[in-house]
From TrEMBL:
InterPro entries per UniProt: Acyl_CoA_acyltransferase (IPR016181), Bromodomain (IPR001487), Bromodomain-like_sf (IPR036427), Bromodomain_CS (IPR018359), GCN5 (IPR037800), GCN5/PCAF (IPR016376), GNAT_dom (IPR000182), PCAF_N (IPR009464)
Enzyme class: transferase
Entry EC no(s): 2.3.1.48
Record's catalysed reaction(s): L-lysyl-[protein] + acetyl-CoA = N(6)-acetyl-L-lysyl-[protein] + CoA + H(+); L-lysyl-[histone] + acetyl-CoA = N(6)-acetyl-L-lysyl-[histone] + CoA + H(+)
Domain spans labelled N-acetyltransferase: 465-613
Gene name of the encoded protein: KAT2B
Protein name: Histone acetyltransferase
Catalytic residues in the record: E532
Positions contributing to acetyl-CoA binding: C536, A537, V538, Q543, V544, K545, G546, Y547, G548, T549, Y574, A575, I576, G577
Length: 771
């Protein structure tokens, strides 16, 4: 699936890529037909809203009850002279007479619209929008052949008609209001992606997200088959239940696409698995058939995505849609993400690679695919360690450096403003999990979820000669020895066994389902201020899930807890990339005298080091970044709100003023604008006046046609520049003379280049020359 990872996120669904939409009511995509119909109505509404007020009153009078004395029962004014076909010209039709009598009750048009005399234009335009929706539904009722659909149209027609009469907002009266089922289709698909694909690397997970968005987009624009059509196709189905959902879909999703006076909802947000089950089989079949028929019309960049990956995605989703025990439809799915019993199963394996997913030569060989991050969910404590690797550092713990005394930097955001913004964020201490359908979800999102569910655990373990042997610890050590031996085949097994069981070495072990699947073996040198990393590996069938980064982050947290802030390791050629992503570099901060003779040297390997920052909680780094992004977002919104302030227009030009300084325009500085004159003066100073012979001997022997800005100003005042070319020629002469007389490394030469660039930028902006 890696070959389609370049697809841009948020691209249109299949129907927009060249497939023909099905006819309404036939079960298919609404597509361009819906868009054209909606656009036509929008144009009509815009035209009517721009009409004169008498014309608007005439239109509303047709749908307004008579207010004349005597309790007239007429519910709408009717013209004595109905408009001819074709209609009159626009100029003739604008002549509206409020005294024209009604053909039905004989009362005037004015008697029907007296309640609208003091109504604002905004309210009148809203009512006119409902009027056009009523007329559209009236047409639909007469064209529709299906009895169930026609009944819904008629009900909505009466609702909108009543809203005009009562000057109210149309409110659908129903026993239930949206959403009708939880979790929604959108949430279910999101859970499906999270449940099945959270272990994939970010590139492939991005492709899955693209497929999910395509699918959701298709449902939102899918035309449901009528209940009668469904009864013929599936006689034994729950007809009554489908009819209820079909009616809801018409009222809340389909008709509001054309009649925008009705509240509109996305199908995927208010319906759940019940509706999805009723349409999925037919929808899947039609989509794949259309894709095959239109494959030559598909853009090349989408062909692989739609023809290869989309069918596989739909097949896997179909299993979850019709499964009776799929966890993605449980309302407790998110609760399970925070510590429930829902496991994550590996269904799709990662893209194949040309070489084995293990490395050798060095004891710290690792698979670069394990560099994806996972989250910190601190679980059970280790038997041997009083402070397990998973234990969270408390915010109140004192740090070894005086972070509170750090100097303020110019441009820093004041803390009182930060605190004020934080107060506007709902529960800032509990940042919500980012949807995996989001383009901005963190790489460690899925792994954090996996640890919180209790699927994986981290323990620092080691052999001991002083304590009674612990069976579980010994079994885990044997498991680590097996993992390292299998993943590092060039490393002698005896050597691996000796170090793993050496009491001076410890291993951060990754436990899944009670068995070891990976770990980092290390030896601490507290007196020297560093730790040597010896082995780092994850078993082959559990790779490409981000465990490698999460292991390293837990190891960093463990060492900060024990006040050791430097790692050293010898990395082979395959492991260098992984360690660079974990913050290691070849620039060793530890003095050579501190580690020579202490760490093991390996031929052909590269010594790398990592300096830890005790103020960083590494296993929660992505959460912190998410919180920072939220703060920045709020700050930007505040700034935008200030910029959007409307100032009164400039009236000085009415008094004869020809021009004003830009900085005097109200609000210009609030947008971030800064005067550019300083930059001009900074580079123009050598050219302000003619060159003095005392300052540049021999200048006038070299430069035959001198020029400067003062001379140009005098020429400008005397109207010397009769053409644009004359002005530009003199300006260019300044730059050319400077570069001819001065060497390239001189300050004058550099000023000429900068000023020339500034000059041509400005004349392009002014439209004096082509850009």
């Amino acid at each position: 699936m890696a070959d389609s990872a370049g697809i841009q996120q948020g691209s249109p669904a299949i129907g927009a890529a060249g497939l023909v939409p099905a006819a309404p009511g036939a079960g298919g995509t609404e597509g361009s037909g819906a868009a054209r119909g909606s656009a036509r109505i929008a144009v009509k509404k815009a035209q009517l809203r721009s009409s004169p007020r008498p014309k608007k009153l005439e239109k509303l009078g047709v749908y307004s009850s008579c207010k004349a004395e005597g309790a007239c029962k007429c519910n709408g004014w009717k013209s004595q002279n109905p408009p001819p076909t074709p209609p009159q010209t626009e100029q003739q039709s604008n002549a509206v007479n409020l005294q024209e009598p009604c053909r039905s009750c004989s009362h005037t048009l004015g008697d029907h619209v007296t309640h609208l005399e003091n109504v604002s234009e905004e309210e009148m335009n809203r009512l006119l929008g409902i009027v056009l929706d009523v007329e559209y539904l009236y047409t639909c009722i007469h064209k529709e052949e299906d009895a169930d659909t026609k009944q819904v149209y008629f009900s909505l027609f009466k609702l909108l008609r009543k809203s005009i009469l009562q000057m109210g907002k149309p409110m659908l009266e129903a026993q239930e209001s949206p959403p009708f089922e939880k979790p929604s289709i959108e949430q279910g698909v999101n859970n499906f992606v999270q449940y099945k694909f959270s272990h994939l690397p970010s590139k492939e997970r991005q492709t899955i997200m693209e497929l999910a968005k395509m699918f959701l987009n298709q449902i939102n624009y899918w035309q449901l088959e009528t209940p009668s059509q469904r009864r013929q196709r599936v006689p034994n189905d729950d007809a009554a239940g489908y009819k209820v959902n079909y009616t809801r879909w018409l009222c809340y999703c389909n008709v509001p696409q054309f009649c925008d006076s009705l509240p509109r909802y996305e199908t995927t947000q208010i319906f759940g698995r019940t509706l999805l089950r009723s349409v999925f089989t037919v929808m899947r079949k039609q989509l794949l058939e259309q894709a095959r028929q239109e494959k030559d019309k598909l853009p090349p960049e989408k062909r692989t995505l739609i023809l290869t990956h989309f069918p596989k995605f739909l097949s896997m989703l179909e299993e979850e849609v019709y499964s009776h025990n799929s966890p993605i439809w449980s309302q407790d799915f998110l609760a399970g993400a925070a510590g429930g019993q829902i496991p994550i199963h590996t269904v799709i394996s990662a893209a194949s690679v040309a070489r084995p997913l293990y490395y050798s030569t060095s004891p710290v060989s690792v698979d670069p695919s394990t560099c994806g991050s996972v989250s910190p969910a601190r679980k059970a404590a280790s038997v041997l360690e009083p402070n397990p690797a998973g234990e969270k550092r408390k915010p109140s713990e004192p740090l070894s450096h005086e972070e509170n005394k750090r100097p303020r930097v110019v441009g820093d955001i004041p803390m009182d403003l930060i605190n004020e913004v934080m107060a506007t964020i709902t529960d800032p201490a509990a940042i919500p999990e980012t949807s995996l359908l989001s383009a901005h979800s963190a790489r460690d999102e899925a792994a954090r979820l996996e640890e919180r569910r209790g699927v994986i655990e981290f323990h620092v373990i080691g052999n001991s000669l002083n304590q009674k042997p612990n069976k579980r610890i010994l079994m885990w050590l044997v498991g680590l020895q097996n993992v390292f031996s299998h993943q590092l085949p060039r490393m002698p097994k005896e050597y691996i066994t000796r170090l793993v069981f050496d009491p001076k070495h410890k291993t951060l072990s990754l436990i899944k389902d009670g068995r070891v699947i990976g770990g980092i073996c290390f030896r601490m040198f507290p007196s020297q201020g560093f730790t040597e990393i010896v082995f780092c590996a994850v078993t082959s069938n559990e790779q490409v899930k981000g465990y490698g980064t999460h292991l390293m982050n837990h190891l960093k947290e463990y060492h900060i807890k024990h006040e050791i802030l430097n790692f050293l390791t010898y990395a082979d050629e395959y492991a260098i990339g992984y360690f660079k992503k974990q913050g290691f570099s070849k620039d060793i901060k530890v003095p050579k005298s501190k580690y020579v003779g202490y760490i093991k040297d390996y031929e052909g390997a590269t010594l790398m080091g990592c300096e830890l920052n005790p103020s960083i909680p590494y296993t929660e780094f992505s959460v912190i970044i998410k919180k920072q992004k939220e703060i920045i977002k709020k700050l930007i919104e505040r700034k935008q709100a200030q910029i959007r302030k409307v100032y009164p227009g400039l009236s000085c030009f009415k008094d004869g003023v020809r021009q004003i300084p830009i900085e005097s325009i109200p609000g210009i500085r609030e947008t971030g604008w800064k005067p550019v004159g300083k930059g001009f003066l900074k580079n123009a100073w050598p050219f302000m006046e003619p060159v003095k012979k005392t300052e540049a001997p021999g200048y006038y022997q070299v430069i035959r046609f001198p020029m400067d800005l003062k001379t140009m100003s005098e020429r400008l005042k005397s109207r010397y520049y009769t053409t644009r070319k004359l002005f530009m020629a003199d300006m260019q002469r300044i730059f050319t003379n400077c570069r001819e007389y001065n060497p390239p490394e001189s300050e004058y030469y550099k000023c000429a280049n900068l000023l020339e660039k500034f000059f041509y930028t400005k004349i392009k902006e002014a439209g004096l020359i082509e850009k």
